[in-house]
Design goal:
alpha+beta, 4-stranded mixed sheet
Length: about 400
């Protein structure tokens, strides 16, 4: 493995450690990071009406100006949307008590109050990514109110707070101003409400902090994947380099082995061919195909050689000198090669390992042809059988 592999691997390892330390130990989504994004909401509670007619004077004059009944008098039902808006319908009942100040007049009898309103509110948490339990809101809407025995349509403006104790349960505290659409028949008034809330059909998501954390987690995972992919790529490259080196080493070993085998085979072949050459040729008397004792000694050695080397095949050629007719010399060389092969077969050499041919006077070993006068010793060199290794 090359040093560059170690340095690359260590660099990637420390990069991943530093990145993980930078993210901190809190890089885990928890239930605190989730928030209800949308749901249906139902509420039941109380309402208080301030219809004194003095607009915003003595807002907290509970005894003189606020009207409350001692039982649940407010129902609301609506839908919370993921974009921060809530649409609700609200029904309220109340009672103006004898002695209370209504429209700057003190009542001499009890009078019922009925309200049916619709409103759209917007969660201010959407503006600053506030907490999941404290949910202030602003809104407006329209409604119809029958109060002090006078019915009127109203324009409504509302400000309130929702406090969520869990994903399902909470409390809504709000104040709503109701402005009569026809001031000739009725005056404006304030209605305060407090309701216990229940959410159902909930769809959850992440808080802004949770979304930021999720983005950091995904960034961290992407970085981890990049690091892991880089490490895997380095390991793969190193593994490929190792396999390539092994393959090259294997091929080199095979080449050297083949080279060594060829060398040994060449040496063996050279040794075998040398051994055959060292035995020499066998020679025949003039005009004869019979084997003499010297020839038989050589053929016995050749037979022993063939027994020691069972894969060897020989080519045996027999020749004559140039004296006499060419056709006769061809016949004589055929006789000589036949007697040579038959002797070896008698000594146990398989016929299939012997290839033979009579060549007459066509392959003289010296210059003694029909036009050259030579002594007997020179002619004897041509009356021969030769051995050639043709297969190892």
């Amino acid at each position: 493995m090359k040093p560059t592999f170690y340095s690359t691997l260590l660099g990637l390892f420390f990069t991943s450690i530093l990145f993980a330390q930078e993210m901190g130990p809190d890089l885990v989504l928890t239930p605190r990071d989730s928030i209800v994004k949308s749901a249906w909401v139902f509420g039941i509670g109380l309402n208080a009406v301030d219809d004194s007619g003095d607009d915003f004077d003595e807002l907290l004059s509970f005894n003189n100006q606020w009207n409350i009944v001692p039982f649940p008098s407010r129902l609301n039902f609506g839908r919370i949307f993921a974009n921060g808006f809530t649409v609700e319908a609200i029904a309220t009942y109340n009672k103006y008590k004898e002695g209370k100040e209504i429209d700057q007049v003190f009542l001499t009898e009890d009078i019922n109050y009925y309200g049916l309103d619709s409103r759209v509110t917007y969660s201010l948490n959407k503006l600053w990514g506030g907490s999941k339990w404290f949910d202030p809101y602003l809104g407006g809407g329209v409604g119809y109110t029958d109060a002090n025995n006078v019915g009127r349509g109203t324009w409504n403006g509302v400000f309130g707070f929702r406090f969520w104790f869990s994903d399902r349960f909470g409390v809504d505290i709000n104040s709503m101003g109701k402005w009569a659409m026809n001031r000739d028949k009725a005056t404006n008034h304030l209605q305060h409400g407090v309701s216990g809330l229940y959410r159902f059909g909930i769809n959850k998501g992440l808080t802004r902090k949770g979304e930021e954390k999720l983005a950091m987690i995904r960034e961290f995972e992407a970085e981890q994947k990049r690091v892991n992919d880089s490490i895997a790529a380095v390991k793969q490259a190193e593994e490929e380099a190792r396999l390539l080196a092994e393959e090259l080493a294997k091929k080199e070993a095979e080449r050297l082995a083949a080279q060594e085998a060829a060398r040994k085979e060449a040496e063996r072949k050279a040794a075998i061919e040398k051994e055959i050459r060292d035995y020499g040729n066998i020679y025949f008397a003039f005009n004869s195909s019979y084997l003499n004792n010297d020839s038989k000694v050589i053929l016995d050695k050749v037979a022993g050689f063939m027994e020691r080397n069972p894969s060897v095949k020989l080519r045996i050629t027999s020749h004559t000198d140039a004296r006499g007719a060419e056709s006769y010399n061809q016949w004589l060389s055929d006789r000589r090669v036949t007697r040579t092969v038959d002797y070896l077969i008698d000594k146990g050499v398989s016929e299939g390992r012997l290839e033979s041919q009579g060549l007459g006077e066509s392959h003289l070993a010296n210059e003694c042809d029909d036009h050259t006068s030579c002594p007997e010793e020179k002619h004897k060199e041509n009356r021969r059988s030769e051995f050639l290794v043709i297969e190892l």
